Amino acid sequence: MISAIRNAESSWMAEGAAYQDVILSNRIRLARNLKDYPFPARATPEEKQALGEEIGSHLPWLLEESGREWLQLRLEEVTPQERGVLVDKHLISPQLAGHPEGASLLLSTDEVVSIMINEEDHIRLQVLLPGQQLHEAWVVADHIDNLLENRLDYAFRHDLGYLTACPTNVGTGLRASVMAHLPALVISKKYGRILTAINQMGFVVRGIYGEGSEATGQIFQISNQISLGHTEVEVIQSLQGIVKQVVEEERNTRIALQNSSEPMLIDRIGRSLGTLTHARLITTEDAVQLLSDLRLGINLQRIRGVGNATVSALLVKIQPAWLSLDNPSEGSSLDWQRAGILRQALEGVSLE
Amino acid sequence: MISAIRNAESSWMAEGAAYQDVILSNRIRLARNLKDYPFPARATPEEKQALGEEIGSHLPWLLEESGREWLQLRLEEVTPQERGVLVDKHLISPQLAGHPEGASLLLSTDEVVSIMINEEDHIRLQVLLPGQQLHEAWVVADHIDNLLENRLDYAFRHDLGYLTACPTNVGTGLRASVMAHLPALVISKKYGRILTAINQMGFVVRGIYGEGSEATGQIFQISNQISLGHTEVEVIQSLQGIVKQVVEEERNTRIALQNSSEPMLIDRIGRSLGTLTHARLITTEDAVQLLSDLRLGINLQRIRGVGNATVSALLVKIQPAWLSLDNPSEGSSLDWQRAGILRQALEGVSLE
Fold this sequence. Notes:
The structure is a homodimer of 352-residue chains. By secondary structure, chain A is α+β, with helices and mostly antiparallel strands. Helices cover 47% and strands 17% of the residues of chain A. The first copy, chain A, has helices spanning 2-6, 45-65, 80-88, 94-98, 134-151, 183-187, 191-200, 232-278, 284-299, 308-317, 320-323, 331-345; strands spanning 23-32, 70-74, 104-108, 113-117, 123-130, 156-157, 161-162, 174-181, 203-206, 219-224, 303-304, 350-351. In chain A, the strands form 3 sheets. Chain A has an 8-stranded antiparallel sheet, with helices on one face. In chain A, strands 6-7 form a two-stranded antiparallel sheet. The radius of gyration of chain A is 21 Å and the shape is globular. The relative contact order of chain A is 0.14. The A-B interface holds A 263-264, 266-267, 270-271, 273-281, 332, 336, 339, 351 and B 263-264, 266-267, 270-271, 273-281, 332, 336, 339, 351.
């Protein structure tokens, strides 16, 4: 488990997938519960433990059948900073990190599959892949879910589907989401109109860290709002269609911005690179914004010496959790460390 | 004359003088008028021409006696941009550049002595030296003034002294001024108190381009307010005393800032260097501020690869006059050129 915490890099950051100029990652998440146990929020510590043991008793079988290697972690046994790194890498939910009592995680060693136990639901199964691979992620999730279902007695009703702690997840228990970097749509102020259109289609746009978080760094998470009334494949196809449109709109707007105001755009990217490579104190919020400009520069082919994968890893390394893994610290000391990490990582990077 | 216009560098920018960590230059200016001619503001073009010829008839003698080499320039014969460069180098007054009709300039080839003819007064004699050399500048000015007075019939009254177009110059006709870079006093907000103290002593603090201009880039001009009732040497000694105190205060405040908030200070300098070396569009005002931070970094021994002289020359090269010497242009085109000049001049400069 240490490796997942001690490396800021993760397989979903890897370069080479389609649409990576705009899309950071795809996520499929399934919410599942067992019939004979109360939902975690209503369960006593003993009931949570019993659930953990029930699932645990089937694990050896699951681990073997899945064809993957796994790491196991009891969330209570690591520090809040270590849990924070897993959140910042998008490998576990903030909910799981914030309520570690009786919670555990099964993580495939390639960091593609996360099985969270005693989260808001008994089981949250997540598959995370880079670029535009929503369907591929669904195939992996469905396979693991079937393995689990073979051994566990899921709470399921034929009229409703899978039962979940929160009514918004009842049905398929599916949340399909895509993390997209939309700087041109934000700069050109087209973003509001597109958000409205996405909402009208029953999908929702959130900030990078899910519900309630702000869209810092022009990174948005687009996901289905409801999980009742449509099959998983229908939802995924709809989302793929929306994402395709958003990607095209973002790409076209980048071209339009280059045509209409290239000096302003390049100045913005240049100034951000200059600050990233020369500042001595940078807040998290500033760093996210500066890295967003850098990522835009990379995908406009104007920034040399760094790629999208490094930017994704830096978005983890600038977070307080990573910076205080070994030396819990705060405030300006974190800002100083953050600036140092950015300077070091981006040494020799240039704007053409 | 071309050389003074085509080089942004000038001898007052040269490194090696005392106090240059704070003081950019010292200036002695004497206002003189001839008895039998109306002040330029009230003179007809013919009267201005006659005055120019009167002075001109004595020039060969002056030029020889002074032991200096001189350049002569009729202001009407150069472009507004060329006059602008002379103003930005502080070699002529904005008044002379703005009213070139019948005006001319005698400039020593080392650019230390400027004799402006048909400015607000018939003659404005200026001596400009680097660092803390107010007395040395006075000695030079007094020598040239005596040479002029040997041949010209100055308007002088024994009860008042030299008569001038503006009553504030009556008496000695002297304005002694020191251009000082006071970033620490501005950052620490001590500047207001010091300004008040200076005013109470009969001296005045103005922005870099004299009366009515703002103190951009934390560069201030400290000069005597009145020229009646004190000898030249008294005024110069008082100003030297004030400047000594201001320099000490600025130096102490720089040390105090380094002790109390070095990370913030170095971050500020680093960010400014990063912007100067990476931006693609920079306004004049921004550039002056950024160069002020850079100069502070140089004098705190934290910036490597550039010195005060380069910063002084850049303060000329970022001005619209210099940028549009050959290609009159404006707005964002100037901002683009300005950023290019700064990037080129500061390539390889680093913060330690």
